[in-house]
Amino acid sequence: METNKTAKYIFVTGGVTSSLGKGIVASSLGMLLEARGYRVTIQKLDPYINVDPGTLNPYEHGECYVTEDGAETDLDLGHYERYLNRPTSKANSVTTGRIYQSVIEKERRGDYLGKTVQVVPHITNEIKRRIKLLGNTGDYDIIITEIGGTVGDIESLPYIETIRQLIWELGDHNSLVIHLTLVPYLAASGELKTKPTQHSVRTLMESGINANVLVTRTEHHLSKEVKAKLAQFCNVRKENVIECMDADTIYDVPFLLHEQEFDEVVLKGLDLPTNQEPDFTVWKKFLASHKNPANEVEIALVGKYVSLHDSYKSITEAFTHAGAASETKVKVRWVYSGDITEENVAEVLAGVSGVLIAPGFGDRGILGKIIAAKYTRQNNIPTLGICLGMQIMAIEFARNVLGYEKADSTEMDLSTPHPVISLMEDQKDISDKGGTMRLGNWKCHLEEGSKIKDIYGSTEILERHRHRYEFNSEYYNEFVSNGLIPVGKNPETDLVEILEHNEHPYYIGVQFHPEYKSTVASPHPLFISFIEAALSNK
């Protein structure tokens, strides 16, 4: 289809309360617009002062998602990629910390020529520059920008002011504001209450921004009267009030919104053609398989952050994608590694068809992961180790097969006599924690004749990394001769990326994060093979 030379902008704001699902709504809209032939990308503006979430505990902010170019970002970028089947980059993620860091660096260089540096115009201009980076590439017709937090937050004020300025600069029909809000249901009176939404929209209007579309999170269908009331008091068209109820799966949301002509409302607001019918072939096939599985398996996810499931969001979504590809419902058993002992491991893992040893940092819960790896190795239970999970498999093997009882990672024990996992040379003098790990896409060469090569169907792959410690190649030959074989290496650095047991039906550890690449349209082959191995074991 013909596309405009100038990108159009959609801004998604939130009101009343956080965690309403702005990321899912933005992703769903992006998917609907792409299905109509438009080139779409989504970016996230996060109001926290951290430069990125890389140094945040997953309990604070959920999973840290890594892009191909090595940016550590908010987990919403994972949703963007899974829905659009298109990679994001560091340009898709903006934080207050990064904005202020950039402005202060410019001030120190003297770029502002003696001017007093202020929130307006210097901070807002930098936000504006970041927002327009993707639009200026010419690669996209529509840029969806999600503003983190809630309207009225002190932290969000510079972003809201920037959007006000941008709307004015872009002119009519070149931008649109979607406000996601909550319409609570009071059981005592049996009513849906619109007042919180009215107050939220009024707060937005006080900042000089009119919402063009309202998306209302609600537990009950909105009546015509409620929609009319919201439209009248929030200054939007009746057809621009969209309800968004809880769905069986987040992958239903695009269709629930499409049924209310959400994508048409948005395109009309941007003065873009709506004549091309959306192509939902891939999504409908995925949903049909996801909702009508022929099989079921239970996978134990052994990790240290299991009390907040968002800490492993990409992994659980990769299970969903691969499960649909295998017509299998994947039930996850959340296992806190700190609870696993030699005495209870058989009971804790009883009945599962496979075990995933999760990524993480630090020494808490490590022994439990090692015990789990030993149990699954000795009992032929399909096992996939990711990042730290692969390192755990190496430590366990060194202790219990090679006989090095005190083998460890130098992350856990600097004085270990057998550091089978240790720092890269170029990491040893680094003192800063943020953004200094091995990050983003790295090449990996797979050995001919290996299981992993058959899984990928190729000898050369690209996968995303997020780690500081590596397999110590001094132990390479001992591992090979005893059966846990390094079958994947980075061709430039010779660093080991993949370990595979040659006598186990499925015992694979990977140094990278395959879950980051899994999408609805392209389930990851490693997760598909893992689920198929679990099915065979069941």
Q: What features would you describe in this structure?
A:
Helix content is 35%, strand content 22%. The chain has 538 residues and is an alpha/beta fold. The strands form five sheets. It has a nine-stranded mixed sheet with strand order 13-12-14-15-23-22-21-18-19, sandwiched between helices. A seven-stranded parallel sheet has the order 5-2-6-1-7-10-11, sandwiched between helices. Helix 14 links the parallel strand 14 (354-357) and strand 15. Helix 14 crosses helix 15 (388-400). The longest helix is centred in the first third of the chain and has 15 residues, at 119-133. Residues 431-435 have low confidence and may be disordered.
| Average pLDDT for all residues | 90
| Unreliable residue runs | 431-435
Question: How is the biggest beta sheet arranged?
Answer: 9 strands, mixed
How many angstroms separate the termini? 48 Å
Tell me what portion of residues adopts beta-strand conformation: 15-25%
Query: What's the alpha carbon Rg, rounded to whole Å?
Result: 25 Å
Strand order of the largest sheet: 13-12-14-15-23-22-21-18-19
Main structural class: alpha/beta
Q: Shape, please?
A: globular
Count of runs of 4 or more consecutive helical residues: 18
Percent helix, as a range, is 25-40%
The tally of beta strands, per DSSP, is 23
Keywords:
single chain, 538 residues, alpha/beta, 9-stranded mixed beta sheet, 7-stranded parallel beta sheet, 35% helix, 22% strand, globular
